[in-house]
Design a protein that fits this description.
CATH architecture of the largest domain: Up-down Bundle
Number of strands: 8
Helix content: 40-55%
Number of domains: 3
Strand content: 15-25%
Shape: globular
Strand order of the largest sheet: 1-4-5-8
Largest sheet: 4 strands, mixed
Radius of gyration: 21 Å
Distance between the termini: 39 Å
């Protein structure tokens, strides 16, 4: 089990609470997978527990939880329902980054963090589909900009309040410039299109969000940067965001491993079966070790290219090992794994999504090579 980092004043034992939530939502998970429907029971249970404000500092009305505590909770929930864990992680990583920037940079995040705590806001990320280049356009108008964009992979969009996103403004002086802001998910000009019919993680509600001329005031622009270039904001995101995201996948792997062992433990003793189970546990331990380092970096790292490099190496190692663990769990269980009732078939589909978050494996290796060779990371 991933060790929980030192508590920082949190009032909730999130490990115990996550176990309660996982048990409470277990009966609904397969149905949401079969129906491509949002995991509403999981999100309701998390809301009731105060999970969505857990990372907000206590003095701003939140729970003061650490990244490690929340990762442990997401891992436990992910063992039973990857969709609930992953959708919740997409909110959590935004809050974690905001809290870090407030503490370490003095960034003006108090208003957002207080709203999250007071209003139980659910934040939605578009980072995975935007990354350095971003997508969509910003047109300058009096007092702000008009946003026109389609944002994919918007996990939790059906229940979200604000999308943490970006779009490109063609600045007449500086050229293509990416603007960062929070966009409302309800109101005129915003449409959530039910496009999420996917291989796995079917309950995350990761629909497309379409913005048609939505007004973003000048005061709402939280930052700007040159398009396609690494910026300190992305080094902060890389250091912090992927620990909670991959906690969900580590949980899926742990759940698949435990289910496979349960299915075969009473079979006649066989050396090949024991070796396959041992190989499965090797893969799981590798994923755990890589993820533990991701949590350490999120809590104690200093953002920059070197930290980004290490975090992204760990992201690839965690993903590859978690996928290998679930694949081996299918082999351990044999033909039973092919039936939906086993739960392994869903885990096998869910874990495939671990491949697609930035930096994906080939770009990650390119980045690592550039760091090692002393080359420009912007290529």
């Amino acid at each position: 089990m991933l060790a929980v980092m030192e508590r920082t004043g949190a009032q909730t034992d999130w490990t115990a609470k996550a176990e309660e939530i996982a048990a409470a939502i277990a009966a609904h998970n397969a149905r949401h997978d079969a129906e491509d429907s949002f995991v509403e029971e999981g999100f309701a249970a998390l809301t009731d527990a105060g999970f969505f404000k857990a990372l907000v500092p206590i003095e701003l009305g939140g729970g003061g939880a650490s990244v490690g505590e929340i990762c442990d909770a997401l891992r436990i929930i992910g063992a039973g329902c990857g969709s609930t864990a992953l959708a919740a992680a997409m909110h959590s990583h935004i809050v974690a980054v905001a809290a870090w920037r407030r503490e370490h940079q003095g960034a003006p995040m108090d208003a957002l963090l207080k709203r999250i705590a007071d209003e139980d806001l659910k934040l939605v990320s578009s980072g995975g589909s935007d990354w350095l280049n971003s997508a969509g356009t910003m047109e300058k108008v009096d007092g702000g900009y008009r946003l026109t964009a389609r944002k994919a992979f918007a996990s939790g969009s059906v229940t979200g309040n604000i999308m943490n996103t970006s779009a490109v403004y063609d600045d007449p002086i500086d050229g293509p410039t990416v603007l960062h802001f929070g966009a409302p998910l309800k109101g005129e000009g915003v449409t959530i299109e039910p496009t999420w019919k996917a291989l796995g993680m079917r309950g995350t509600g990761s629909n497309d969000v379409v913005f048609d001329g939505v007004f973003i005031p000048d005061a709402g622009i939280a930052g700007k940067r040159p398009q396609g270039k690494w910026h300190m904001l992305f080094h902060i995101i890389s250091m912090i965001a992927f620990a909670p995201i991959y906690a969900a996948y580590l949980g899926v792997a742990e759940g698949a491993r435990n289910r496979a062992v349960e299915l075969v433990k009473n079979r006649p003793h066989d050396s090949l079966l024991a070796q396959n189970v041992g190989e499965m546990d090797n893969h799981l331990q590798a994923a755990r070790l890589a993820h533990r380092r991701m949590v350490e970096l999120a809590e104690t790292g200093t953002p920059g290219p070197e930290t980004t490099n290490e975090a992204m190496i760990c992201r690839t190692l965690c993903a590859d090992s978690a996928i290998a663990c679930v694949t081996k769990a299918m082999e351990v269980a044999g033909g039973l794994a092919f039936y939906r009732k086993s739960g392994l078939e869903r885990a096998f589909r869910d874990i495939q999504a671990a491949r697609f978050h930035p930096l994906q494996e080939k770009p990650q290796k390119d980045f690592a090579g550039r760091i090692a060779l002393g080359w420009d990371i912007d290529g």
